[in-house]
Amino acid sequence: MIGQSPQARRAFVVGNTRLQAPPHTPELKLHLADEITPIWKLTEEELGELGLPPPFWAFAWAGGQALARYLLDQPDEVAGKRVLDFATGSGIVAIAAAKAGAREVVANDVDGFCEAAVAANAEANGVAVRFEGADLLGGAPPPVDVVLAADICYERPLAERVMAWLSAAQAAGARVLIGDPGRTYFPKSGLVRLAEYSVPTTRELEDMEVKRTSVWALP
Fold first, then answer.
1. Read out DSSP for 65-111?
2. What are the tens digits of pLDDT across the range 107-118?
3. Rounded CA separation 140/148 (Å)
4. Integer CA distances (angstroms), 31 to 38, 50, 60, 195, in order
């Protein structure tokens, strides 16, 4: 069992990843897993024996890379605004929002190891990101100007809950931006495509080495 203190989690994140630039956002540096880092070689069974959930925080997923790229290229979307990054994972989107000039950035995820990953990654990029570990889907969306979400539609029940929650955030006045590489349960209608990218990835993470990935807005 890996220690559950913030210090132990931070040591695990840093010790099992490598600081590197995601291919689609070379301006950023993240602690990520790859074929030469220890966590890359651990199976889900072995992670369970260590008391760890799957390390989504250790990878720069295609949807997150695309949304981060969009924010870096279109900083007016978040500059001077209060921003929430839902299901933040590594924090790549939250960090891009901070780099783009957001007034306040909150990164949310229910995995405690994400808190350690986001802290380490924010520090590596010289930005301030506040972490929130609550399950936000159980209540009303917080009062922010922009809600960001990426790679959220890989399971049907979760996708439906998240999209309903994001619609509630929009109804409350937030701008909602979503990064998605064509996940099975991503809605095919009722959204506005803002950008499309060819995002380099790996066959270990996705089903191809370059993933066509879009950034969408709730209209």
1. HHHHHHHHH-GGGTTTSEEEEET-TTSHHHHHHHHTT-SEEEEE-S-
2. 999 998 999 999
3. 16
4. 13, 20, 10, 26
